[in-house]
Amino acid sequence: MESYEAYHAAFEAPDEDEARRLLSAAFTPTARFESEHSGGPVIGYEDLVEHVLAMRVALGDAPVTRSPYRRVGDAVMWTWTVMMPGGEQSGRDVALLASDGRIEQLLVFDISPDTT
């Protein structure tokens, strides 16, 4: 399983322990996450885990669809759509991979129709 696949699998993991295991395979210890809605960068594995676990709770059982992954060198991109009670949200993620294949930086861009 590639690191970015492990990141996505963590959202669907049956419990928090399995999500943590998947996230340890996905991110480097010094990884950085940033989105337009994160209030600034989330830096370091432990803070990233807490951020993703909070996102798992916020998403609940909302259905998520993802595009195929597109990779060029050490960069991977995909789009996603989630159906939340308030409407559809879409985004484009770009992951920059470390030499060991884990995610070193993850950037999330909102591309929902009302933000373009």
Explain this structure to me?
Strands 1, 2, 3, 4, 5, 6 and 7 form a 7-stranded mixed beta sheet that branches. Helices cover 31% and strands 40% of the residues. It contains 3 helices and 7 strands, in the order H-H-E-E-H-E-E-E-E-E. Strand 4 and strand 5 form a beta hairpin. Helix 1 runs antiparallel to helix 2 (16-26). By secondary structure, the protein is an alpha+beta fold.
Short description:
This protein is an alpha+beta fold. It is 31% helix and 40% strand.
Classify the helix fraction into a percent range.
Answer: 25-40%
Tally of individual domains? 1
Q: What is the top-level CATH class? A: Alpha Beta
Measured between the Cα atoms of the first and last residue, the distance is: 33 Å
N-to-C SSE series? HHEEHEEEEE
